[in-house]
């Protein structure tokens, strides 16, 4: 069971002022601490000698004061480190809500470390929540076709339903749905591994897009979308068609899902001779993606917001799988500014370049 944080959810962080942390370097702060302690000890020893105190009394007293000053400043130095230790232990036990409260406003390396730790904790908490949501979504998505298959097969076995072509077609559609879900999970495992083998070959880019769009048009027949393709006939590229088909299928399907019925989705591509890249833009007209959300939507398990003319559902993996497939080919996927609507720009190298493996 996940441990709970002692700090209430949503409670403001308590800011603690440290007597050290004003400088941008920990070495400078330690040097200043030594100088201050030395000056105080020297002045105190001089005053005590002036008033006639014995050296046997003045020396221990000045040492006690020096140790007190050093302890005060060192406590402010190590307090964030102790909180970092406690927070790391809590995160190891599964509590991703903990945050380090001390040292977040300082300028030294400890302040930078605490801010980086809190940012990491935010990311881990988000990923953990999205993982839990994805497990719930996948469990629900798997339960539906499995239950339908079980009911239909039982009815056929009991003789309640005849194994007609229509009923068998229903069984086949449910198995296809299961296969799609399994494919998503396999893609997720490949993403976690960080790489996948590529079957690189040269192919005609327009023909590839035609073959990719055709099944999407069939599946989208009930929404009356038009997919407008504008690609030169002479573009050829090298790559793994299966992985690239994942990329373009997910991007175009996302554009269809977030377009009102009866509207157009534009797919246009051209060669960038300067960089040796093939640039493809997938535009669904009308809708826009706020700039602050453009990077977030490519994170795993993040689902786009629904609205008029959009569909919900899915596992939240489509765009992250698309970005992964592009990165395997040395390319990128991003949302760019476009007054016409949401514009996903895909940049892929025309010639495949073998990248070194992670283990090399």
UniProtKB/TrEMBL annotation:
Compartments (UniProt record): Cell membrane
Catalytic reaction annotation: ATP + protein L-histidine = ADP + protein N-phospho-L-histidine
Transmembrane annotation, as ranges: 20-47, 53-73
Membrane topology reported for the UniProt record: Multi-pass membrane protein
CDD domains the UniProt entry points to: HAMP (cd06225), HATPase (cd00075), HisKA (cd00082)
Main location: membrane
E.C. number: 2.7.13.3
Protein name per Swiss-Prot or TrEMBL: histidine kinase
UniProt organism field: Bifidobacterium amazonense
């Amino acid at each position: 069971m996940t441990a709970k944080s002692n700090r209430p959810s949503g409670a403001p962080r308590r800011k603690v002022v440290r007597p050290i942390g004003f400088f941008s370097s920990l070495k400078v702060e330690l040097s200043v601490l030594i100088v201050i302690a030395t000056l105080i000890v020297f002045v105190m020893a001089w005053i005590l000698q002036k008033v006639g105190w014995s050296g046997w009394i003045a020396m221990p007293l000045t040492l006690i004061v020096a140790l007190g000053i050093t302890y005060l400043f060192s406590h402010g130095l190590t307090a964030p480190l102790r909180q970092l230790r406690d927070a790391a232990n809590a995160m190891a036990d599964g509590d991703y809500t903990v945050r380090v409260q001390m040292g977040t406003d300082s300028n030294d390396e400890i302040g930078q470390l605490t801010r980086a730790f809190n940012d990491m904790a935010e990311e881990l908490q988000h990923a953990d929540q999205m993982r839990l949501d994805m497990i719930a979504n996948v469990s629900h998505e798997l339960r539906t076709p499995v239950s339908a298959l079980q009911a239909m097969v039982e009815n056929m076995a009991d003789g309640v339903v005849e194994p007609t072509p229509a009923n068998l077609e229903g069984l086949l559609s449910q198995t296809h749905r299961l296969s799609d879900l399994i494919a998503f999970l396999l893609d997720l495992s490949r993403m976690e591994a960080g790489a996948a083998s590529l079957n690189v070959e040269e192919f005609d880019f327009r023909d590839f897009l035609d073959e990719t769009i055709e099944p999407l048009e069939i599946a989208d027949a009930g929404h009356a979308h038009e997919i407008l393709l504008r690609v030169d006939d002479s573009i050829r590229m090298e790559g793994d068609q299966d992985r690239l088909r994942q990329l373009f299928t997910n991007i175009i399907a996302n554009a269809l899902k977030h377009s009102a019925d009866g509207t157009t989705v534009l797919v246009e591509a051209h060669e960038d001779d300067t960089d040796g890249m093939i640039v493809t833009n997938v535009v669904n007209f009308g809708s826009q993606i706020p700039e602050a959300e453009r990077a977030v939507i490519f994170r795993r398990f993040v689902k786009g917001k629904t609205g008029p003319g959009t569909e919900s559902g899915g596992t939240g993996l489509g765009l992250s799988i698309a970005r992964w497939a592009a990165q395997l080919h040395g390319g990128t996927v991003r949302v760019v500014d476009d007054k016409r609507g949401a514009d996903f720009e895909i940049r892929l190298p025309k010639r495949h370049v073998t990248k070194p493996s992670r283990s090399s």
